[in-house]
Design brief:
heterotrimer, A alpha/beta (about 230), B alpha+beta (about 725), C alpha+beta (about 80), A: about 230 residues, Rossmann fold, two-stranded antiparallel sheet, 5 helices, C: alpha+beta, Mth169, Chain: A, three-stranded antiparallel beta sheet, elongated
Amino acid sequence: MKFGVVVFPGSSCEADCYYIIDQILQEPVSYLWHAEQDLRGVDCLIIPGGYAYGNYLRAGAIASNSPIMEKVIAFGKKGGLILGICNGFQILTEAGLLPGALIKNRSLRFQCENTLLRVEQTNTPFTSTYTQHEVIKIPIAHEEGAYVADKETLERLEKEGRIVFRYCNEQGEITPETNPNGALNNIAGIINEQGNILGMMPHPERCAEAILGGEDGERIFSSLLAWWQGGAGR
Amino acid sequence: MKEDFWKEVGLSESEYELIKEILQREPNEVELGMFGVMWSEHCSYKNSRNVLKQFPTEAPWVLQGPGENAGVIDIGDGQAVAFKIESHNHPSAIEPYQGAATGVGGIIRDIFTMGARPIASLNSLRFGSLKSKKTQYLFSGVVSGIAGYGNRIGVPTVAGEVYFHPSYEDNCLVNAMSVGLMNHEELAKGFASGPGNPVFVVGARTGRDGIHGATFASEELSEATEEKRPAVQAGDPFMEKLLMEACLEVIKTGYVVGMQDMGAAGITSSACEMASRAGTGIEIDVAKVPCREEGMSAYEILLSESQERMLIVVQKGKEKEVQDIFTKWDLEATVIGQVTADGQMTIREGKEIVAQIPAKALTELCPRYDREAKEPEYLAQAQGYDLASLPEMEDYGKVLVTLLGTPTIASKEWVYSQFDYMVGTNTVVPPGSDAAVLRIKGYNKGIAMKVDGNSRYVYLDPYRGGQIAVAEAARNIICTGGKPLAITDCLNFGNPEKPEIFWQFKQAVAGMSEACRVLGTPVVGGNVSLYNETNGEAIYPTPIVGIVGLVEDLAHVTTLGFKQEEDIIILLGITKDELGASTYLSVIHGLEAGKTPEIDLELEKQVQQATLELIKMGLVVSAHDCSEGGLAVALAECCIQGKIGADVALTENIRPSSILFGESQSRIIISINKSKIDSVLQQLKKFQVPYKVLGSVGGDSLNIAGSGWKVNVDVAEMEEKYREAIACLMKG
Amino acid sequence: MFKAIITITFKKSILDPQGNAVHKALKSLGYEDVEDVRMGKHVEILLRGDEPQEAETKIKEMCSNLLVNPVIEEYQVELVEVEV
């Protein structure tokens, strides 16, 4: 399964994502420079975290207009798999591939910490190897991670089961106390209508190895591989 | 030229006379401006160089010692680590966010200019009392600035320390350290070699910011300096990130002859330092330097401290290859001159020569001063304070909780959670332990790093305080399973023209040097920040040690929290009746007095080596050294981190306050699996290291039993006080 | 030459944490009469051209294509002619 990690000026987590695919999943992966128009026939795109274009104007705003995005949007609309992590999630909302927006944390500060997430949907290419309502530990590191959307959009997302991860506590309870950044409805990650594009604020690539303190993030990548190997999405 | 212009640029009259002698003529304004910055304390170390000669700087694993942009050490497998620490104190006191941000930017450039990819940032911060609104403002601004800049570069900020003490009320300290990794063959130096080779300026455009920033850093702060606010530069971390990627890429091509970042004294310092090192000359046309403001004079262009710029000497003929890389990263790269063979720094504005100074005159010919040194008057009295008469306290549990809630000791989570310490997915030991450890992907080894310094020890005994600064830094590396390799130093002191301050400086460096020798950690680079005084009041003498060590096998990585019920707790080292210079004395009794704890460097070495050996043998479950707050605070920290209690007995025949809170040196607390007790004790006897079995891990409270006294505190209560202390003060 | 002054603010429906924080800070400084604070962005664009209608159209395009995120923001434009 071929992966492509999109790199913008200012991206900083591309090497971390590359490493997971290359060393942990052991699948072919390449970097896709933002100025190129070639997606190199990849099966899954990863838009990594960082500060593309310094997050100037708005997080992800300038990046969403980058040369490669035309191809990325076409790829996504055709059903190609796209995983947007942190800055990647911000870029996907700015590009219109996912609804809503990410705004400044309620604390007005950058927050680097582990969070507990409840897996709300397991019938997606990204979460097929988790169990329904499993509680997993994945870190966040952002200052603009509060998911917002208008009432109609939120209702739709809830009704259509497109909220994939929510911030929770050890017992899997969704409460204001378990919400680290003020995201509406404790939303940490969502999926598009077609089910092929996932955006999430937490960083799964940062907890895919025991030595870094946890492995719960690894299954997002192995879910993708399992989905692909199962013949789906081709 | 204005009368006494030499005074305006920060030179003394005798220095002015010396310049005339060197040039054999009257210098013009531009030339005087260049001498003013290059001969400032900040750039020339003229007051400190002779003292710094005491530092040991060599070892078989040192690839580059002091004198370059950063020190470099070998870590095996053809790999090397470049690291350095630098201060940005004066700018941060005036404009905390940008002062701290540009401090981070500057030190990161010093690392990637050597060809190393920055892999971690650390910082050491000092402020006044956190109860004051001014301190809260500075503290908040500095932390935001470090976060705002550091997070955007994508380099994790993994360790640090923060102290709050009244002596820093008007002079906060911001010391920023950067660590980078490279392969040996990627090492790039700041040499302007090869006459005829083109000289490029790359990165940001040059503006009017920060002119005479170097001189500003070499002065005490007063109301007049408040007016110098424009001397603080604004940083652009996005530009720096692009610059870093482009420079690392261009170094790999092999076409770079020399590279240096532009920090204090901008183009002037980079150009003359590179030429001076290579023994060549350099010619620069200021009209070719891309400017972002209109009508900048040669003087302004030469002294501008605009951020995110590098000076690169390229192999003649390879200009286009280099240019293409910068274009890819959307950065400007402009030829502004060339290397010459005449040893002169020649500045042109178009065809006209506006300044010409021998490169070495700006660097090597700067006078060095042996300032007068005199032991301060306060010292004898402070050291002689009769601590024996100090009353014992009623409830030591309460004292312990108070100390845990003191901002200097309390958890710094409020600070480090604002830093991305995970980016890069190499952070194996994150903030909260004795040192940070980063793994190196593809290898089973890691790099341990820490930044450390206790200024009260230095205030009360500079020599001993200097020794302890190095010893404690090394001890922290040991506790995480690493072998200390080398240090970088940031020496923050008051006005060196005062004999008492200079005495502190000299003594501290002497103490540090001795510890470096005994412990085998040479100094590979560093920074001196003098004139940290306001209206005549100096800060506590604050030498900060940044240290790097090698964890030979990731299986050795050790953290400080207790791990499981029934593990046995052993204290290595000796607890003496030493309350002097302790945090307990300061916080509980309001005293800055007594004798700095003794340090026996040979014993320190033994304790460190024994601990590391035990770790390597797989016998150690947790390790933590005793420092501020003494044994009780250290035990509490092990309980809090491990979320588990302990039962220990402290049977020394000395008063309880000393046992619990005295800061005797060379002590490490380890916990071990109880099945291993015999092997461990056998090893300790073999190492001839003094030790005491204190008790065992378990329960949910810390219980300390003494002779006729005891301490019982719930771990949950300690944790809450420890965790919330800083956040509480910052909220209100 | 035209100068467009664009003021971009969060939509009323979006909770503005910065505006809230500034509101609280003003209150603590004694300004009890402050009803509300909204933070926004101020963008100035110098645009070459002679036709005000054309300029306004271009500016509005810039807003919808890049400068403003319609999901969370709204904006106002003030256009003035300036000397070259």
